[in-house]
Amino acid sequence: MLHIISSSPYQTQAFQQCVPLVTENDAILLIQDAVIAAVGQNSAFEAIKNTGVKIYLLAADLTARGLGERVCADAEIIDYKGFVSLTVTHETQMKWG
C-alpha cells in the first residue's frame, strides 16, 4: 500500500494515525505541506522513519516551500513521474489529510 500524507505534522494527526497501519511492503509519500516534516528533527517524521518502509518526498512541493536542500537524507525525492510509478507499483493507496 502507498500511504500519501498531505498535511503538515503541525496541523493534523495524519502521521500518528498512519504509522500503526504501515506494513513491511508499504511506502509513504509526503506531498504538499507534509514535506515540512522532513526538515530538522521532527517527531512525526521520526515516527514514520521508524516503520522501516521507504519514504518519498515530492520534489515540486519541496521547491514550492523552499526546502529543497534542507530535507532529511532518509527520504528519496521524486518528481511527478516517480509519483505515478509509485501508484502503479502500489495498486492500493491511502490518503491521509
What is the topology?
Blueprint lengths: L1 E4 L8 H5 L8 E4 L12 H7 L4 E5 H6 L11 E3 L1 H10 L3 E4 L1
Parallel strand pairs: 1-2, 1-5, 2-3, 3-4
Report on this structure:
The protein is 29% helix and 21% strand. The protein has one domain (2-96): DsrEFH-like (Hypothetical Protein Ychn, Chain: A), CATH 3.40.1260.10. The longest helix is centred in the C-terminal third of the chain and has 10 residues, at 80-89. The two termini are 16 Å apart. It contains four helices and five strands; from the N terminus they run E-H-E-H-E-H-E-H-E. It has 97 residues and is of the alpha/beta class. Strands 4-3-2-1-5 form a five-stranded parallel sheet. Strand 2, helix 2 and strand 3 form a beta-alpha-beta unit. This is Sulfurtransferase complex subunit TusB. It comes from Photobacterium sanctipauli.
In short:
29% of the residues lie in helices and 21% in strands.
Structural domains: how many? 1
**How are the strands of the largest sheet arranged?**
4-3-2-1-5
Distance between the termini: 16 Å
CATH class: Alpha Beta
The low-confidence runs, each spanning 5 or more residues with pLDDT under 50, are none
Q: Report the portion of residues in β strands.
A: 15-25%
What name is given to the CATH topology?
Hypothetical Protein Ychn, Chain: A
Order of helices and strands: EHEHEHEHE
Judging from the principal axes of the Cα atoms, what is the shape?
globular
What is the tally of beta strands?
Answer: 5
CATH superfamily: DsrEFH-like
Secondary structural class: alpha/beta
Q: How many alpha or pi helices? A: 4
CATH-scheme architecture: 3-Layer(aba) Sandwich
Radius of gyration over all CA atoms, rounded: 12 Å
Largest sheet: 5 strands, parallel
Helix content: 25-40%
> What's the pLDDT, averaged over the residues?
94
